[in-house]
Write a structure and sequence with these properties.
The chain is mainly alpha-helical. 75% of the residues lie in helices and 0% in strands. It is built from 8 helices and no strands. It has helices at residues 12-30, 34-47, 52-61, 67-83, 87-111, 132-151, 155-178, 184-219. Helix 6 (132-151) runs parallel beside helix 8. The longest helix has 36 residues, at 184-219. The radius of gyration is 18 Å and the shape is globular.
């Protein structure tokens, strides 16, 4: 089912561009580039403070990006899509999430970047780059943006939902920096990685489902 008259076109070229950007960013991080050091310090200086209200919000909101929460949300979305017989969208969702999080685990252990050497405001273990919370939230919300564009007819609800899906990973990334468990470059890298896998996933969805559906619609 495609409710929109003009679905997004093939995303393979944008995905390729994001792959290059991500590779360059990962190389800068793994080589401890002075640019990354300056970037991290500048963003931390803007983001972090000791305001009790901000601290309480960040410590609570950051839990919404936990791997367990994102996994549960993905499973719920998958089940909903299966119930409504949207099988292609269901497997697009699961495929993107599995690939993004699986690749994230590989990169973490390849780069082996330690977390910030300051007191963490929440518990966090494992390596720092890229931020798993940022990857998971960006990938899931990217999938939701694609589904919203393809399935929602109302311009009002489409716009509102896209704004919500966009803000969520931004806020998750902000909290990961605020609670001192990630460098800003970890978060930025996580966002790029999540978006990359959404674009790659949509390229497959477009060629094997969206484009054939649009061709069938034109024939009728």
């Amino acid at each position: 089912m495609i409710n929109t008259e003009n679905p997004p076109r093939d995303s393979l070229i944008p995905a390729s561009i994001f792959v290059v950007i991500y590779a360059a960013w990962a190389m800068l991080v793994s080589s401890s580039s002075q640019f990354i050091h300056s970037f991290d310090n500048a963003v931390i200086g803007i983001v972090c403070n000791t305001n009790p209200t901000n601290v309480a919000f960040a410590k609570t909101f950051t839990n919404l990006g936990n791997t367990s929460v994102i996994t549960i949300e993905t499973i719920i979305l998958f089940i909903i899509l299966i119930v409504f017989k949207q099988y292609s969208y269901a497997f697009f969702t699961v495929g993107v999430m599995i690939c993004a999080n699986g690749y994230n685990w590989i990169i973490k252990h390849a780069v082996e970047r330690h977390r910030p050497f300051v007191q963490h405001l929440v518990y966090a273990d494992g390596y720092s780059f890229p931020s798993g919370h940022s990857v998971g939230s960006a990938a899931l919300c990217g999938v939701l943006i694609v589904l919203t564009i393809l399935l929602i007819k109302s311009k009002f609800w489409k716009t509102l939902l896209i704004i919500i899906w966009t803000l969520f990973p931004l806020m998750i990334g902000y909290t990961r920096i605020f609670v001192h468990v990630h460098y800003p470059s970890d978060v930025f890298g996580g966002w790029i990685e999540g978006i990359t896998f959404v674009l790659l996933g949509y390229a497959f969805l477009y060629h094997f489902y969206v484009e054939p559906k649009m061709m069938d619609r034109k024939r009728k």
